[in-house]
Amino acid sequence: MRIDLHTHSTASDGTDTPAELVRNAAAAGLDVVALTDHDTVRGHAEALAALPEGLTLVTGAELSCRLDGVGLHMLAYLFDPDEPELARERELVRDDRVPRARTMVRRLQELGVPVAWEQVARIAGDGSVGRPHIATALVELGVVETVSDAFTPQWLADGGRAYAEKHELDPFDAIRLVKAAGGVTVLAHPGAVKRGAVVPESAIAELAAAGLDGIEVDHTDHDEPTRARLRGLARELNLLTTGSSDYHGSRKTVTLGARTTDPEIYGEITRRATGAFPVPGAGGPVTA
Known about the structure:
This protein is an alpha/beta fold. It has helices at residues 18-27, 44-49, 84-95, 97-110, 117-124, 131-140, 171-180, 201-209, 224-237, 263-272, and strands at 3-7, 32-35, 56-67, 70-77, 184-187, 214-218, 240-243, 279-280. 36% of the residues lie in helices and 15% in strands. Strands 1, 2, 3, 4, 5, 6, 7 and 8 form an eight-stranded mixed β-sheet that branches. The two termini are 24 Å apart.
């Protein structure tokens, strides 16, 4: 089985619609794909309706969190999307995205970058506006060569010249809320230092003690020594280890299935979840 547990659609900052994403996942030879848009489940219904035969969809979200001033992302799988407290927190994060993005656009303008809010809004479309949309605008303007090049201290990285904060969850609260909604939590790309500051291993140990289920080890932003170190940490803390592409369509160069999760780990995730269940494609309309 080929299992990719971290992808994004136009419901947040990917370039594939949810329907396109599941069709592309099937074409890429995946057996299981998770749709984990940032702080939203809005793409799930479309993905389910378009789910091809032979592909199983894992519903999820990537929750924006912050601990001691360091941003981190929590992958949440197979939770009940209607659980009110978790839904309220997701809404608070989403509502803060537009004013935050407008602030970053203004700061870029103050730095002499001729970016306009209308340009960023066009790029975001119906998705939850975020830094990748602003980064894409910088690529269009020729300010940077790639989206990744915009995530530096010079521009949009945490603490960067144009960075602005938004409402984010405490990761311990995120674990509690996802667990209460019957879901499973995995810390996304915990060693991705090229994105900015990362939480120390001591903090990951504290999160594990609070109920964190796993860490994303096999990720494009982790080199081999980082993966080896994270695998050792996971063994020490009895955490699951996942792998995934963190696919964003054409916004990034990584392809679907570039990194995958071991089927036994996937099986354990599904065993722990009680809020929702993986949905196998039947080649026709599927209702959530």
